[in-house]
Amino acid sequence: MVENKVKLKIVACTILMLFCLSGCSLSSFLSFFKKESLVKNSPESLYVRGSAEFQDGNYKKSREYFTRLKDEYPLHNLAILAEVGIADSFFTDKEYIEAESAYNEFLNMHPTNENIPYVLYQLGMCHYNSKGTIDRDQTETRKAQKEFERLITRFPESKLSMAAAKPLRECKQELAEQEFYVGQFYFRQKKYQAALSRFETVARNYANVGLDYKIEYFIAETKRKILEEEKLKKDAEEKQKQKAVKK
Fold first, then answer.
1. CA gap 47, 65 in Å, rounded
2. How far apart are CA 50 and CA 68, in angstroms?
3. What share of the chain is helix, strand, coil (3-state, %, to 5)?
4. pLDDT digit string (tens) for 166-180?
């Protein structure tokens, strides 16, 4: 989000400087962009107006300008930034499903673009901001983890990969806690094999997220319970055999 906003400001400032150098006053500059009677605006003016609406929190209006730019000037270099702007406007407005769709469309259309690390990060944040608590479905948490890991794998040197490390760790921790939560439920229900499977999943997939000592204890305790059950079962079978022999 920061990188995109910087780009918006750079383009806006550049256009303003061009007007100043040409001798236009600030009022002339503003009136240029307010000419609603024009059938078409330049790609630069559409981008600046979309960016201004974005900065003012008018995300729907911002998308209108960015969409016009993309549709009317599809080959212009600003059209690519407009696509990011559309996705960002959805994201900032907390419309994460729409934002995810827009970011994915950008990935499919521009797989080698320089903004791909940013788009991957934003995709991860769409899912991260949509995840539930550990006693709820964790689909969004897993999707967030996937996107952050994809970013870090593809662009390990990117600053956005470093930024993704914290939410990625939080995703892993929450997934581990959810597995542990279910494991404890099974443990309390004396379904020890099911509990052991959950605890071992945490140990295998989510090391170093703060549950190592708990998991080590519960794995050992669950295995002990399983052995106790097996011994009781074996003793009961032995008694049944002895009764059968006496008869």
1. 7
2. 10
3. 80, 0, 20
4. 999 999 999 999 999
